[in-house]
């Protein structure tokens, strides 16, 4: 029996209004992650378009991208590379800043994380404006990785993130979307 057919991943995502601040509809994937079949189906679907491609490593964005990215890497039988918030990586790292609604944030990657030309898949839980993912793509390209695609569980299409990645020439794969925000 196919488990995939019986599961609607969207039903497993919990929406928490006004978190972390008024007006934000927070799409909480902890309810999906704790569901054994939901988690497995989600990881399978994230990995599927890349199963027949050569992927040397999955790069996951802290923190929810670590949970999903690690599992996707295991499924693709490749390595995992963390993209972390500033100051968390122990080795020599390079940083990339990106704009938040209020202010600027920085993510970092070890400068020797990926060999030049190696194909890498970027993974995170959700793409909204695409600012975080764009910064991650820039970091990966600065260390000469070949970004073969990006995979997210959730797309918020009205915020334009997937289109922003397309402009960078990155194929964006998403599983479910929430219109409006
Ligand atoms: P962005 O850079 O605007 O694409 O935002 C993506 C990052 O912010 C991801 O790491 C998400 O986990 C987080 N994020 C942004 N908006 C939401 C939301 N409505 N619900 C849950 N997480 C969000």
Give a description of the structure.
Helix content is 31%, strand content 33%. The protein has 181 residues and is α/β, with parallel strands linked by helices. It has a domain at 53-177: Rossmann fold. The strands form two sheets. Strands 5-6-4-3-7-8-9 form a seven-stranded mixed sheet, with helices on both faces. Helix 4 packs across helix 5. It is globular and about 40 Å long. The termini are far apart. The protein binds adenosine monophosphate.
Give the total of beta strands.
9
Task: Kindly report the spatial arrangement of strands forming the biggest sheet.
Answer: 5-6-4-3-7-8-9
CA-atom Rg in angstroms: 16 Å
Q: What molecules are bound to this protein?
A: adenosine monophosphate
Uncertain runs: none
Strand content: 25-35%
Features:
181 residues, alpha/beta, two-stranded antiparallel sheet, 7 helices, binds adenosine monophosphate
Question: What is shown here, in short?
Answer:
With 181 residues, this protein is of the alpha/beta class.
Write the layout of secondary structure elements.
Layout: H1 3-6, H2 9-12, E1 14-17, E2 25-28, H3 30-33, H4 36-47, E3 57-61, H5 64-76, E4 79-85, E5 93-99, E6 104-110, E7 119-127, H6 131-142, E8 146-155, H7 161-167, E9 172-177
Parallel strand pairs: 3-4, 3-7, 7-8, 8-9
Antiparallel strand pairs: 1-2, 4-6, 5-6
Helix pairs in contact: 4-5
The structure holds adenosine monophosphate.
């Amino acid at each position: 029996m196919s488990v995939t057919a019986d599961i609607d991943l969207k039903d497993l995502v919990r929406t928490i209004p006004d978190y972390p601040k008024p007006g934000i509809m927070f799409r909480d994937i902890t309810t999906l992650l704790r569901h054994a079949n939901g988690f497995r189906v989600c990881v399978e679907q994230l990995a599927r378009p890349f199963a027949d491609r050569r992927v040397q490593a999955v790069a996951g964005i802290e923190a929810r991208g670590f949970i999903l990215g690690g599992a996707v890497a295991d499924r693709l039988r490749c390595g995992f590379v963390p993209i972390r918030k500033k100051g968390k990586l122990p080795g020599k790292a390079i940083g990339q800043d990106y704009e938040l609604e209020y202010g600027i944030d920085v993510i970092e990657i070890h400068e020797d994380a990926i060999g030049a030309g190696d194909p890498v898949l970027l993974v995170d839980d959700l793409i909204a404006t695409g600012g975080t993912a764009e910064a991650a793509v820039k970091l990966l390209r600065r260390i000469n990785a070949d970004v073969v695609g990006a995979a997210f569980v959730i797309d918020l299409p009205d915020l334009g993130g997937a289109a922003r990645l397309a402009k960078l020439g990155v194929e964006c794969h998403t599983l479910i979307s929430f219109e409006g925000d």
